[in-house]
Write a structure and sequence with these properties.
Length: 270
């Protein structure tokens, strides 16, 4: 059964793959056997991730791209296919939650709202759409000589990285919550259209210790309020999100599509 978690022969593209959750996911997919293309706007960050993967014996290609730029998205998919021949796995992790998108509804700028949805929701849609041909033609999943896997359909997999904010409301984070709820809905509708050839799922992390929440963790009152609200009583490490993503990308999740897996330390169980 452990072989079902292996991704040998698969090619994965990870947006926002230069740091935090994206970095951990890219490395995790590579350790499971996939060739990995981390993408982000910051070249130095994704180059460092690609170097780490290659140092560990994996295959990687760093490609700079802005998910809100259609030309960048098309180029990223094209370079991935040129290097590795296919795109079998898409992890839509690129996201943002800037200061001008925080606050009570009357305090949120329209520009901030639009920018968050452009990156977090529209970006995920555009990347997945650009990779559609390769995903729908993917044939790397399952062993055709194994009767238990031969009739399971295609191997393409999309994993959207949402948030507990895609499952519940979060005060003063309206554009972010709207975008993450949108990702959950997008996951369900794409899963219906692309089954059985491509599985589409979401992970919904709770609070994860990354540079994006450094200021929050530094505020003892806010940090403690989150810990008190989380049954496991801590923030997650980025690597703890990578494991569920690898699972959803693998044959171990061959009968899972259209689902959202909360990886939140029990936050949404309350």
């Amino acid at each position: 059964m452990t072989d079902a978690f292996e991704l040998d022969g698969d090619v994965a593209i990870v947006t926002g793959g230069g740091r935090g959750i994206g970095r951990a996911v890219a490395i995790g997919l590579a350790r499971a056997g996939a060739s990995v293309v981390p993408t982000a706007r910051t070249e130095a960050e994704i180059e460092a991730v690609a170097d780490r993967i290659e140092d560990e014996g994996g295959d990687a290609l760093a490609v700079t791209a802005d998910v809100t730029n259609p030309d960048d998205v098309a180029r990223a998919i094209g370079e991935t296919e040129d290097a590795f021949g296919s795109v079998d796995i898409v992890v839509n992790n690129a996201g943002m939650n800037p200061d001008d998108a925080l606050g009570r509804p009357e305090d949120v700028s329209s520009e901030g709202f639009d920018r968050v949805l452009d990156v977090n929701l529209s970006g995920a849609f555009e990347v997945t759409k650009a990779a559609a041909e390769g995903l729908l033609e993917s044939d790397t999943g399952g062993d055709e000589s194994d009767e238990s896997t031969a009739d399971r359909g295609g191997a393409g997999a999309v994993i959207n990285v949402a948030s507990v904010g895609g499952l519940v409301g979060l005060p003063r984070q309206h554009p972010y919550v709207a975008s993450k709820h949108g990702l959950v809905g997008l996951t369900k509708s794409m899963a219906l259209d692309w089954a059985p050839d491509v599985r589409v799922n979401t992970v919904a992390p709770g609070y994860v210790s990354t540079d994006l929440v450094e200021e929050l963790e530094a505020n003892e009152r806010l940090r403690q309020s989150i810990i008190d609200r989380t049954p496991l009583e801590r923030f997650a490490d980025p690597e703890e999100i990578a494991g569920p993503v690898v699972f959803l990308a693998s044959d171990a999740a061959s009968y899972v599509t259209g689902e959202t897996l909360a990886v939140d330390g029990g936050w949404t169980a309350r």
